[in-house]
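Student: Hello, beginner here. Can you help me understand the protein record under this note? Any guidance would be welcome.
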Amino acid sequence: MNVEKLSKIHFIGIGGIGMSALASYFISKKLKVSGYDKILSPITEKLKKEGATIFHNDELTLIDNIEKIDLVVYTPAIDDDNNQLKYFYKNNYNILKRSDVLGEISNLYRTIAVAGTHGKTTTSSIIAHILKVSKKQGACFIGGVTSNYESNLILGKGNLSVMEADEFDQSFLKLNPDTIILTSMDSDHLDVYKSEENVQKNYIEFTKKIKNKRKLIVEESIHSLFQNNLSYGFSDFNDLQIFNIIINNGYYDFDVKYKNEVFKDFSLKMPGKHNLLNTAGAILSTLELGISINKIKDALNSYKGVKRRFELHLNKPKLVYIDDYAHHPNEIRALLDAVKEFYPSKKIIGIFQPHLFSRTKDFLKDFAKILSDLDNLFLLPIYPAREKPIKGVTSSVLLDLVKLDNKKLIKSKSELFTDLDNEEDFILLTIGAGDIDLWVNDIFKYLYSK
């Protein structure tokens, strides 16, 4: 794929977090960008302002100069019977999956790929922010909207790129990175991989993609599975260790040991030990790139996080509201651990929207166990995304397994607000990767006036 030879690109599923970053990238290269997405969202509205032409139904007649499209990019989330996708295949257009395009772009930069079941987006965004502050960034593709830049794409004139390496559909195998950071390796997407063993095999295969065997950076709990790696974490055997951790005014202060040298007085304005681990990976990778410790400290001091990653919307003495993307049992565990660490005496009420029938089926008992650690649970219907329903897999089945007295299935915000009217002094969490984020503004307005 030679970007210089392209003039018009069409995206099918342009509103997705990964697709929209690609669309913005090509707009920045002065290409004509059009796209289809069935959902009108802040992301599609932002792309329109950048210059993209976007349609919210798949009628082909809406696309101007359809014959001049050089490249069609699609996401696996799009159904095979999509009207546009069928047309472009039938008429032999140049068609690539999102991961193929990202793989081609990874060849244009010195690329840092961040992979793992959890922690990819936060780690990627911290690295991208450090590169931005250091004026080293080229193109950084993030799997969430960064709070510092209100974008999932961070551009600059440097030669370094950060790419979130998605394990779904083996997409990460299309990348050609110089450095890989592996944050975690739990079972997920078992509809694709079938077993935990296959998950591990694919991650190991991905680590073989490193150009010139430059750098493999691995979180401490999985470093023994890989050879010739640098590790990070809380233990003293790591190449980079975070230690002397204290909570100070709602944030973490900590020290760092790197190559037997101690660097003091780091701060992170994000709760959660998992976020300290993500930060450790980001610090190690950027130190290995030659970025100074002072630049890294400055960047961490100004880092504001990612939308929907422990995003604090309301913080009153008796009422706290946090929204989080957690959609795997281990992610929910990390979220609750962080909440309990920073708010140890608060009642925790959770609103959870399960994401995917297959994931709910694969981790049904694990979800039930972790959700039982809430004080109150409001459970929404399963968000299907790309999937068809699976017989016997419903939110009702999950709710029955949750060991709580205060638990309820809900379908509307009005039901939620009626039940919350009688609650006082609590933390409210919205949890999930589906469209639960569409509830956030209304929940905030309700709580703010409470």
